[in-house]
Amino acid sequence: MSRIVRCGLIQAKTPLDGRQPLAAIKKAMIDKHLKMIEQAAKKNVKILCLQELFYGPYFCAEQNVRWYELTERVPDGPTTKLMQKIAAKHRMVIVVPVYEEQMPGLYFNTAAVIDADGKYLGKYRKHHIPHVHPGFWEKFYFTPGDMGYSVFDTKYARVGVYICYDRHFPEGARILGLNGAEIVFNPSATVAGLSEYLWELEQPAHAVANGYFVGAINRVGTEKPWSIGEFYGKSYFCNPRGKIIAQASRDKDEVVVADLDLDMITEVRRTWQFFRDRRPETYEPLTEQTGRAAAAD
Question: Does a structural domain hold residue 164?
Fold first, then answer.
């Protein structure tokens, strides 16, 4: 019997702009997502991932200490606790990206993973932190992740998480595969322009190279008062052959749903023996800061 798991992704516009009170912004986004989670439950989704920093706008478009007030503890903060109740209610695994405070002044871009019985399984902290003009000033807000590339044994599948800018780095994507991930979710916030052509290139490549499914999530719309561009949506699932099997529109709130046949992982890996044919003893330069060629100069 095939191991088919129905999975979902939520892409959503921010209903209030960044000039509103933070409490109002957060409540509006959480309320909106609760309704969309209900939609996913009605479609019998078993594993669901929300977008990066889901309960606010992408505030990294500016550098302002005001946004530190959106931080929460994980798992003891109110949003994680709420989503534990929602997960248990729907018997649904939920990946919940939040702005985490470990202690005052130490913040991470984090995703909590909650099992279908509401149990908190752990968290992933974004490793690769961009600081790119215009409007991606993440080093002002986030410390690089320090908890490795964990894979979580959920009720329905082994789930890994990568977050947004991480997707440009194949090293962590490979480690998630070696750690046993069957589905890797990448909640993101990315706008039209420089990297859009990579959106449907890099993550299918990770899926092929590592023989797992990928769920890629992006926001939609333009967030004011900033003008860094339009979040172009196009959230999708791709299979271990790199084929996109379900995809959202460019500009609408949507719950993307796909049935993932996890038995395909074994089928593909028996054809493409990438893990067997790796040569880790030759990869030492990957852990050097500048590489041997630069050192030789």
Answer: yes
Catalytic residue among 26, 32, 46, 52: 52
Residue 285 included in any domain: no
What is d(CA 279, CA 135) in angstroms, rounded to the nearest whole number?
39
Query: Exposed, middle or buried: residue 19 (CB in 10 Å: 0-12, 13-18, 19+)?
Result: exposed
Q: Is the dihedral of CA 96, 100, 102, 106 positive or negative?
A: positive
Q: How many domains does the chain have?
A: 1
User: Does residue 164 carry a catalytic annotation?
Assistant: yes
Q: pLDDT (tens digit, 9 = 90+) per residue, 230-239?
A: 999 999 999 9
CATH of the domain at 214: 3.60.110.10
Q: Comparing C-alpha atoms, which of 73, 76, 112, 75 is closest to residue 94? A: 112
26, 32, 46, 126: which one is catalytic?
A: 126
Q: Does the active-site annotation cover 126? A: yes
Residues 164, 202, 234, 254: which is the catalytic one?
164
Q: Pick from 165, 218, 216, 186: which is nearest to 13 by CA?
A: 218
Which residues in the chain land under pLDDT 50? Answer: none
Residue 283 lies in a domain: no
pLDDT in tens, 147-179: 999 999 999 999 999 999 999 999 999 999 999
Position 152, amino acid: F
Domain containing residue 90: 4-277
Say what the pTM is.
0.96
- On whether residue 292 sits in a domain, the answer given is no
